[in-house]
Structures are given as C-alpha cells and as structure tokens.
Amino acid sequence: MSNQLGDYLTKFKGSLQIDTAIKGSAVRELSTHLEDRRRELEESGLSEEDASRAAIRFFGPVQLVARQLYRVHSQGTWKDAFLAALPHLLVALLFATYYWQDIVCTSAIATVVTCTVIYGWFHDKPMWLFPWLGYYLLPVMVTGILLLHLPQGWGWLAAVLYLPFALFVIGYIVKQAASRDWLYVSLMLAPVPVACAWLLIPGRGGVSLVNTHSSQADLNIPGIVTSLLLLAVASFSFMRVRPRWCKAAILLISLSVVFLATTLLSRGDIGLWGWLVFVSSLLVVASPACLRIRS
C-alpha cells in the first residue's frame, strides 16, 4: 500500500467515532476498496502515485467519509438502548423501594455494575457501556466529596492523599470515552450532577447524610427517582437517534431539567460551596454536548 493511502486510512481511523469492533472492520473495508480502485487506475495507465491520489479523490475527504459511516452506525439497537438505560433503572429501583439503606442490596447493585463494566470494557467497549461507567466512577467522586466532611484537619489531608488516585482513575476512563466520542463523556458522567444535587442539598432537598431515617430523607426519594428515570429515558433516546446534534440535545435537555428541579427544591439551602460543586459538575458534564450543538 502506498504512503498516501496509508496516511488517508490513518486519518480516517482517527476521525471515526463508532464502536471499536466496527471501526476495525470499517477501516479494513475502506482499505480494500481503495486498493481495488488504485489497481483499476494503474491498469488504465496511471502511475502508482497518481492512481493513489485519484483513488483518494474518488472517495472524498476523510471527514466526509467518516461522517457518512457514523450516520450508518450511530444508531444503537433496541438492546443497546435498553442496556444503556438499565443502570439508571436499577438505581432508581433501589431508591424507590428504600433498599438503598440496605447494605446487602446496595452491594448487590454495586457488584452488578462492576461486573458489567468489566465485561463491556474487555469486549470492545460497546455504546451501552458508558452509562454503566458513570455509576462505576460515581463512588470515586462521592468519596472525594465526603472526605471534606471529616473532622477539621483530617478532611484536607485525606482529600490530598485521595485526590491523585481519583484523578488518575477518572482521567483514564474519560480519555477512553473521549477517544470514541466526546458525547460519550457527557453520557457517562450524567449521573454526577444528580448525585451532587441530592447529596449537597440538606434537609428538604437532598439525601440526609446524617440521619437517613428522618422524615426529611423520605421526602427526597421522589426527586431522586424522578431524576434517575429522566436519565434512563435520555440514555435510551441517545442510543436510538442518529444525528449527533440530537444526541447532544437530549443530554443537554435532561441536565437542564435536573438543574431546574434542583434550583426549585433547594430553596436557597444548598449553600455557596454546594452550588459551586453542583454547577461545576453540571458544566463539566454538559460541555461536550454543548460544544457539539454549537459546532
């Protein structure tokens, strides 16, 4: 294969934003078509270099070919859509039945999430894996927040010791998601603002971290369950639509509704630091989808 065709295929592979398993076969298929076209042109009398250039012109710019292939493979199956929504539904069920206070049930859900993530990670990272990765990362993030509530002096020490580990894990997984498509980063981290909202709003707004059996904690369950069901619908819809701007819009709408609900329910009780953490997490999660809408 000529250097021109090799460079073209390398750029094509880098521009593809589809599942890894499909990406390999797509590159091989395009390579075959390019070689066939080059041979035909050489047989018509062109040199290898001129034939390679003509074959590349025939297929068009790399970005155009990648976008066309994305449209074909961007829609997940009904199975993909259900699996993407499933982690949100499982956690919503955990809260709706009040079994979130049962260590056995909570551990069972955590085990299911971990096993599913391990399976998907080593099976070409399918589209439906990313919502599961969000719940896999959630304990890492929440632990960092809770460390700030340790007795004075110990909280910052624990945070400093824990922060490098947390950043490494989060950064590595985010990098893997971004290498596929930045929209998957938003899809993966969508549960983070929800968790921040209900953990940081005290009393009337969020989960009571001090007294989980209080009547105030009971009032939080409908909001938590509704937020998780909204994420389930968003994840399901994300898998089934084709255009990338539609996927981005779905994520932005769901995150906006979470922000609106949090604002209405907090009634100003969240506090300055709570708002900073919540809004920062919301902006981080929404940024990839927002950039896609504006591009």
How large is the share of residues in beta strands? under 5%
- In total, how many domains does the architecture comprise? 2
User: Which stretches are low in confidence, meaning pLDDT under 50 for 5 or more residues running?
Assistant: 203-219
Fraction of helical residues: over 70%
Number of helices: 13
> What is the rounded Rg?
23 Å
Biggest sheet, open or closed, and with what strands and sense? Answer: none
In quaternary terms, these chains amount to single chain
Order of helices and strands: HHHHHHHHHHHHH
Tell how many strands the DSSP assignment holds.
0
Name the overall outline: elongated
Keywords:
80% helix
Ordered list of secondary-structure elements with their pairings:
Elements: H1 3-15, H2 20-43, H3 48-59, H4 62-73, H5 78-96, H6 103-121, H7 129-147, H8 154-180, H9 182-189, H10 191-200, H11 215-240, H12 244-266, H13 272-294
Any overview of this molecule?
The protein is about 80% helix and about 0% strand. It is mainly α and about 300 residues long. It has two domains: about 70 residues, no CATH class; about 220 residues, no CATH class. α7 runs parallel beside α10, α10 packs antiparallel against α13 and α11 packs antiparallel against α12. About 5% of the residues have low confidence.
